[in-house]
Amino acid sequence: MPELPEVETVRQTLTELLIGRTIEDVWVGWPAMIKEPDDVERFALMLTGQTIQSIGRKGKFLKLYLDDCVLVSHLRMEGKYALKEAGSERSKHTHVVIRFTDGTALHYADVRKFGTMHAFVKGTEEQRPPLSKVGPEPVGKDRITADELGTRLKKTTRAVKAALLDQSLVAGLGNIYVDEALFRAGIHPAVPAHTLPDKLIPVLLSAISDTLQEAIDQGGTSIRSYVNGKGEMGYFQQQLFVYGRTGEPCRKCGTPISRSVVGGRGTHTCEVCQPNRVNQKGEKET
User: Using 50, 70 and 90 to split pLDDT, how confident is the model at 280?
Assistant: First the structure.
């Protein structure tokens, strides 16, 4: 957390707030967050004097396009951006401040200090880690095709949930939305990915895309502390079928939602709606 829908929501709100602002200087209070370049002063120098032209996203990464460089930001577990007025004090969890020439400042706060920032010369960002290691998108006009998803899943013997959490296989999915998408597709999280029949791959892809798009439309899911760039919560948590609903009745069949561990992650399942086996015709087995 945050996952693709939350990062996309942050991208949208930061786009409203930041486009056209010129960076006056950069303060870094936790140098370990800056991964590229490995010198904080060089990082600040790359950004200083640059104007924000647009903001993109790849998987869970934000991409702030400046005049000559790109700032790639990963929020990890607790990272948050907020645009502050001139004279606003830093909170104790604010570790990066980007000040603009109009007196406002973009504060990056991160309680757990897991977030990362990379600054690249524009045009090189996709060829360098971390973006070079990120798989195809599961939403939008350039989303992964069912054939490509099937090919990637056939190459791994991991549980399908563990495979979908692999950011190099497909971008942006985390624990919440994998559980939700697998429920919608009627697939048990522990089923080995390579055993999924071809008939189920388009069903799974549609479940992933629909779940993510609905979450984007609702502003993301606020389970713990997530808020967007304007400090607003998301509302998709009100529509969750399985995640975080251990012991509650399934919204489709009434069976209590179970919790297990798959691939080292807490996993939520309806054992009736998501049988733990499928045959090669794509039919559910009990």
Answer: very low
Bridge partners of 69, per DSSP, are: 121
pLDDT at 32 (0 to 100): 97
* Rg of the chain, C-alpha, whole Å: 20
Catalytic residue among 21, 60, 63, 245: 60
Is 133 an annotated catalytic residue?
A: no
Q: Where are the domains of the chain?
A: 4-133, 146-285
Residue 99 marked ligand-binding: no
Q: What average pLDDT does the segment 63-79 reach? A: 96
Assigned token pair, 285: 């087995």
Question: Which pLDDT score, from 0 to 100, does residue 277 have?
Answer: 63
Nearest to 231 by CA among 137, 115, 91, 123: 91
Name the CATH superfamily housing domain 4-133. Answer: MutM-like, N-terminal (3.20.190.10)
Given the candidates 1.10.472.10, 1.10.8.50, 3.40.30.10, 1.20.1740.10, the CATH classification of the domain at 146-285 is 1.10.8.50
Q: Which residue has the tokens 């994998």?
A: 178
Predicted TM-score (pTM) of this structure: 0.90
Contact 21, 102 (CB under 8 A): yes
- Can 283 be counted among the known catalytic residues? no
- Tell me whether residue 112 is annotated as binding: yes
265 a catalytic residue: yes
Active site residue 99: no
The catalytic residue among 154, 259, 265, 284 is 265
Q: Which residues pair with 284 in a beta bridge?
A: 278
135-185 pLDDT tens trace: 999 999 899 999 999 999 999 999 999 999 999 999 999 999 999 999 999
Place of tokens 């989303």: 143
Determine contact, residues 244/180, Cβ cutoff 8 Å.
no
